[in-house]
Specification:
2 copies of one chain form a homodimer. In chain A, 36% of the residues lie in helices and 21% in strands. Chain A contains 16 helices and 18 strands. In chain A, the strands form 4 sheets. A 7-stranded antiparallel β-sheet of chain A has the order 15-12-14-13-17-18-16, sandwiched between helices. In chain A, strands 5-6-10-8-9 form a 5-stranded antiparallel β-sheet.
Amino acid sequence: MLSFTSLTSNLIEELIQQFGPEFIKYDADTIEKYSHDWTEDFHFPPAAVVFPTSTQEVSQIVKWCNENNIPITPAGACTGLSGGMLPVFGGIVLSTLRLNKILEIDKRNLQARVQPGVINEELQQAAAALGLYYPPDPSSKGSCTIGGNLAHNAGGIHAVKYGVTREYVLSLEVVMANGNIIRTGANVLKNSTGYSLTHLLIGSEGTLAVITEATLKLIPLPKYRLVLVASFPQAALACEAVSAIFNAGITPSALEFMERDAIVFGYQFLKLSDKIPDEVQAQLLIEIDGNYPDILQQEAQQIGEVLEKFQVSDILFADTPSAQNEVFKVRRCLGEAVKGTTIYKEEDTVVPRAELPRLLNKVKEIGKIYGFTSVCYGHAGDGNLHVNIIKTPELSQEQWEIEIPKAIREIFQFTIELKGTLSGEHGIGFVQQPYLEVAFSGVEINLFNNIKKLWDPNGILNPGKMGLISG
Amino acid sequence: MLSFTSLTSNLIEELIQQFGPEFIKYDADTIEKYSHDWTEDFHFPPAAVVFPTSTQEVSQIVKWCNENNIPITPAGACTGLSGGMLPVFGGIVLSTLRLNKILEIDKRNLQARVQPGVINEELQQAAAALGLYYPPDPSSKGSCTIGGNLAHNAGGIHAVKYGVTREYVLSLEVVMANGNIIRTGANVLKNSTGYSLTHLLIGSEGTLAVITEATLKLIPLPKYRLVLVASFPQAALACEAVSAIFNAGITPSALEFMERDAIVFGYQFLKLSDKIPDEVQAQLLIEIDGNYPDILQQEAQQIGEVLEKFQVSDILFADTPSAQNEVFKVRRCLGEAVKGTTIYKEEDTVVPRAELPRLLNKVKEIGKIYGFTSVCYGHAGDGNLHVNIIKTPELSQEQWEIEIPKAIREIFQFTIELKGTLSGEHGIGFVQQPYLEVAFSGVEINLFNNIKKLWDPNGILNPGKMGLISG
């Protein structure tokens, strides 16, 4: 194991002297807030939390940690689902709370320059006010930060048409472990100039450097949206319909899947009294967008024709923003609903889109063998299925701790067989580390560790994550 | 300088023994063919060229080179414009000529699995036959290979709407310097599982590993295309019109710029007898695509209205494939036309789209100071301007060798000031190495060198490129 220095009160005093009392907090509330994210019930208190207000301050504190051998873990809104911000070795959490400015929206070049603490939805709204669009939008968009989105290469419901975070990053400003500040990439739409440090940093979960600024690509905001809710008598039929829509030449702007149990969780959480008819075993939420309402109507009809081949029992149209919000509310609340109702483990499996029915069947099959119940939903258009394994009363604590990880390993092995992988958008973080070897050979894991060492020789940046050597 | 072992006739004999006579060639024609690409008039003969037919053979030959300290430089069709495949240290060129199979087109998942020697246009045609589309298409699409496209993160005329090569790569199979074979990524549309080795390898110009297979994303083929050719009385007005089109909410599928001198070169090369009216000082080729012809007509009209504000003198519509090919023929031939007519240096400058008029003006201004003539054209929608500096009779050889590089440095410095960079799609390769420090600090160049060392400790993979330490 890595051996770090404790953040003693003397050292805290040193930081207060250098940066002032607003910079560092270690009261019980702050420590509690930064001890956990939205991942299961993990809890790792840091010794203190720092709140820098500039790149310069980030550079100084990171350098200080490097010189004093104190772990430093960047954190945004702590909404992650893989435990990426958990300060598992204690030390300092670097909060981006006060690095929260949209520095510029360049309407001439369709670009936004932002600090990492900007909340995703705030950027979306600022862009929309100018007729522009920043598509990546995790379910937690109302609270999650751009910094966290970059760290985990976040997706969201619109990734299916518009791509993930990676596809919107032009350049980054980052602070390296030794305090060096570098700018990667350029503010251009194409770049063949040197190794892409930008792309290496995206998805590196704060283990290589601390992102202090990002220049992001924006696109024109589509003018119209139309949403269809399609109900199916079998979950597998809904999954099969997904590929058929794309093969009809239509690329929906969102294509979400919920199995019945997920809908039930959502309804209970939202206290909706509507009865879900027995024949509804799964739903697809299908959103299409564009600039021409007539075309959307035409495409909606085409989609309807495709769905008929898969025994769709009911199609509901939502063509106003409020009706659409209503429809997506159930889908968006699911993470919180499952978390609020029960103890669970969430997996972020992803496979080629057409393999989704096979993945879903396998999850249920493995569930039968290991005796677990699962609630599945996710971004079906991307082949990204969130598998929530529920700790039902039938499962003993021993089963939960010893048998369920074996079941998860089997699920992951199957995603790899299908040419998929472990995580589509949540990251490896803390919780998926034991399964890394399912996806990667020793050669690749060795490369990861060597890349880590290049950027952060003392291992102070977010240690204990991504399966990287911690000693 | 790196010191390599010569490929003696004994060593060649050893390779023939191991792989058979078809595997290795060193006759004069083969050596000549692999001594140069399309970059200026550089000429570096390799000692021999190998033609592996499998990943296993690539692994064996790379391992052999690593053990024997012999440089090995991968090459596709040798159409590069930065000298990326020039075997500047001699040794072995690894040709992908016989690794040229489209292994699979997966219509269910919209994916293609290809070997690196597949010609870009062959993949496009195979996809189109199934109603699918692989958008990246450099001007050399009829001859360039997917491997070369991956090595340089190639763009092409459709990148403006559909993105560059990077955005179509799901996973790679590569051979490392020590012969290890790894698969990076997964065949999925979103991936947050470990550092992205895939994205680090894209654009690494064969200096980190040899790509032996790629799984690429395909999309539905748009059904209709419409092309407008707009003529302007001033080049700067054409450049200004580019941003205005995007700001009107339209994303053309191609948006190409040619200044008058470029059009003249193209006409001469194609032996077209049409007279170019005096008032045509620049043209934009604007392509829009989609599934609905009525919408395209409507958007074409909108574009026409935008262009009127920029003193457009003439707009020609090309709505049949043959008329469109005719129009793009001039643009596509320009690289060859300039090369075939004169001695020149080509720069691949890229800036944020709206800065294009400033870049063009600056190039002309620097030209006046240093006394050079330039022919400019390129992917204006991406802010990617190809600047061809012509060796007119007025320039002495001394000016060409000593003063012009200073002028190029000034052009690059200006692209950096505009938040652009050195190369949009051609790469650093051999010719842009002296300018790397204009774009990067010592910290970044140091990172590049350390990354290189991780993958290729002996420096045998395409040495003498990308400004990496060669000794």
